[in-house]
């Protein structure tokens, strides 16, 4: 890779950052990221990064979304003031992305706010994965590469999930994602229409499509409290599905999500490692992981060398 690139990380997902650096035959850069006694974030870059191409691996994810975001911003400021040539934020899970439009009176658009903060901190480019809404790319005035976990998901399905399949979108907003996967697998498509009383609480569900005597695969970008996911699973089983798998990119798994999964009829919940979840995987045997380390490391390598990364969006053979 040469000596003009540096991989740095905060405390959000050090394991993923280490795997990415190893995949690139690099060692992680020296940065001390902690807290002052009053709770403020403390950052010190412990080696020269002058005129280097610097990549910060830092998902702004749970369990400490705000701390992870502040670490990213303060690290970027420190790196910019240390005269780095270019700063790229690699944010596998982009926090605050769910509030991407003003859907109620007096509601914030936090996706845009975070984009402004990232630009103001001096970051030149963002690499992320499966944004909750693709229009978030338009919130930035800098280049944003929104990678997809779809190629890895399709490989996993072909290798580990046999039988006649039906791809299920858990809501109308995910139909495009589910349709793309069903086309590549030559599988049927079903849609669950859900009515929400409020966030994370669904009042009713209607299934559009046939799942009888098929293996149902629920495809989504995020699993949070898993209440909707478990309800969808029970509905699909009642409609005649043989087994139900759920495959999501970001395993937030907040609240009592693990308890719900263990007590549900779900065969497996397959998530990527954009968010650290080793502790939760130990509590839930249904939790399986797709490693997206190589996708991110390849995006970094190509960006550093000025190569196209478009094949990363579609290489699912």
Automatic annotation (TrEMBL):
InterPro entries, A to Z: PRib_PP_synth_CS, Pribosyltran_N, PRTase-like, PRTase_dom, Rib-P_diPkinase, Rib-P_diPkinase_bac
Catalytic function, reaction form: D-ribose 5-phosphate + ATP = 5-phospho-alpha-D-ribose 1-diphosphate + AMP + H(+)
Listed NCBIfam families: PRK01259.1, ribP_PPkin
Domain Ribose-phosphate pyrophosphokinase N-terminal residues, every copy: 5-122
GO biological process: 5-phosphoribose 1-diphosphate biosynthetic process; purine nucleotide biosynthetic process; ribonucleoside monophosphate biosynthetic process
MF terms (GO), sorted A to Z: ATP binding; kinase activity; magnesium ion binding; ribose phosphate diphosphokinase activity
Pathways involved: Metabolic intermediate biosynthesis; 5-phospho-alpha-D-ribose 1-diphosphate biosynthesis; 5-phospho-alpha-D-ribose 1-diphosphate from D-ribose 5-phosphate (route I): step 1/1
Superkingdom in the source lineage: Eukaryota
Keywords from the UniProt entry: ATP-binding, Kinase, Magnesium, Metal-binding, Nucleotide biosynthesis, Nucleotide-binding, Transferase
EC number annotated for this UniProt entry: 2.7.6.1
Xref: Pfam families: Pribosyl_synth (PF14572), Pribosyltran_N (PF13793)
Cofactor: Mg(2+)
PANTHER family: RIBOSE-PHOSPHATE DIPHOSPHOKINASE FAMILY MEMBER (PTHR10210), RIBOSE-PHOSPHATE PYROPHOSPHOKINASE A (PTHR10210:SF115)
Name of protein: ribose-phosphate diphosphokinase
A GO CC term attached to the entry: ribose phosphate diphosphokinase complex
Family: Belongs to the ribose-phosphate pyrophosphokinase family.
């Amino acid at each position: 890779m040469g000596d003009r690139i540096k991989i740095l990380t905060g405390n959000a997902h050090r394991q993923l950052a280490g795997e990415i650096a190893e995949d690139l035959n690099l060692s992680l850069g020296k940065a001390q990221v902690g807290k002052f006694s009053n709770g403020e974030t403390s950052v010190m870059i412990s080696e020269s990064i002058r005129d280097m191409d610097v990549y910060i691996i830092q998902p702004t994810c749970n369990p400490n979304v705000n701390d992870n975001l502040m670490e990213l911003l303060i690290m970027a400021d420190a790196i910019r003031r240390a005269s780095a040539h270019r700063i790229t934020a690699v944010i596998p899970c982009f926090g605050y992305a769910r509030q991407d439009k003003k859907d109620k009176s007096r509601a914030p658009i936090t996706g845009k706010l975070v984009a402004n903060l990232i630009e103001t901190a001096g970051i030149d480019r963002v690499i992320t994965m499966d944004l909750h809404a693709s229009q978030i790319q338009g919130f930035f005035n800098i280049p944003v590469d929104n990678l997809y976990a779809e190629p890895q998901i399709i490989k996993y399905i072909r290798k580990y999930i046999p039988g006649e399949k039906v791809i299920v979108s858990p809501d109308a907003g995910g139909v495009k994602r589910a349709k793309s996967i069903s086309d590549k697998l030559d599988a049927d498509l079903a849609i669950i229409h859900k009515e929400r009383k409020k966030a994370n609480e669904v009042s009713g569900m209607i299934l559009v499509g046939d799942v009888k005597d098929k293996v149902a695969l629920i495809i989504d970008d995020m699993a949070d409290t898993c209440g909707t996911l478990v309800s969808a699973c029970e509905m699909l089983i009642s409609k005649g599905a043989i087994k139900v798998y759920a495959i999501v990119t970001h395993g937030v798994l907040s609240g009592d999500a693990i308890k719900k999964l263990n007590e549900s009829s779900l065969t497996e919940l397959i998530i990527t490692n954009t968010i650290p979840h080793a502790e939760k995987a130990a509590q839930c045997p249904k939790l399986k992981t797709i490693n997206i380390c190589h996708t991110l490391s390849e995006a970094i390598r190509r960006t550093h060398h000025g190569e196209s990364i478009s094949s990363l969006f579609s290489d699912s053979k």
